[in-house]
Design a protein that fits this description.
About 30% of the residues lie in helices and about 30% in strands. With about 200 residues, the chain is α/β, with parallel strands linked by helices. It has one domain (about 1-195): Dihydrofolate Reductase, subunit A. The strands form two sheets. Strands 5-6-4-3-7-1-8-11-10 form a nine-stranded mixed sheet, sandwiched between helices. Strand 3 (about 55-60), helix 3 (about 60-65) and strand 4 form a beta-alpha-beta unit. The longest helix has 11 residues, at about 40-50. The protein is globular, with a radius of gyration of 17 Å. About 30% of the residues are buried.
Length: about 200
């Protein structure tokens, strides 16, 4: 109970998300819908941070993964959820499509459910109905999702990759919204920076 109360205090109602992103030296986060580098230690850091929690992303970002990440719930934003289920069933066969009156599964094996949501309003309804007090929601891209929801993030975890790469997707400005709290380097190829939303 103490842990749940602490998590509720740390998750303000107006900032229910945390963002996690890897950024190159020239601010690139993607190229052609893919990550333009291979840094296994950063993938491991991402997994360690998000395991057991909820990842929120756009359709293109999710479809680049091919399938849901293990032991995490997925929220995928797309303007036409029904079309995605019909046209790309290989990606979405495990997903529920949000509708008014949706409720959590009674199946004990569905501890990590996956949802297709079509709007910010549906996302807010999902948060009110489904978000457990012991799980965090991590924003995972792409650029439009970061642009839309960074203002609603309490924290930003940024992996600064020590490479300059070509790319067609860059990370939006964040410096006026967040303040650096901690920087640490555990790996040769990148360092991790933890930012908190400015009060």
């Amino acid at each position: 109970m103490a842990k749940e109360n602490r998590l509720r205090e740390e998750r303000p109602a107006d900032r229910p998300f945390q963002a996690i992103v890897a950024v190159s030296k020239n601010n690139v986060i993607g190229n052609g819908g893919k990550i333009p580098w291979h840094v296994p230690d950063d993938f491991r850091w991402f997994k360690k941070k998000t395991l057991g929690h909820i990842v929120l992303m756009g359709r293109v970002t999710f479809e680049s993964l091919k399938r849901p990440l293990a032991d995490r719930s997925h929220l995928v934003l797309t303007s036409r959820p029904g079309d995605r289920r019909q046209n790309a069933p290989e990606h979405y066969r495990q997903f529920h499509e949000w509708s008014e009156g949706s409720s959590p599964s009674s199946n004990p094996n569905d501890s990590f459910e996956h949802w297709l949501l079509s709007s910010r309003e549906q996302l807010d309804a999902w948060l009110k109905t489904f978000l457990p007090p012991d799980r965090s929601v991590y924003l995972c891209g792409g650029k439009k999702v970061y642009e839309q929801f960074l203002p609603r993030c309490s924290d930003l975890f940024l992996s600064r990759i020590e490479l300059e790469v070509e790319g067609d997707c860059t990370f939006p400005p964040y410096e006026d919204q967040f303040e650096l709290k901690k920087r640490w380097r555990q790996y040769e190829s990148f360092q991790i920076e933890h930012y908190c939303h400015r009060a």
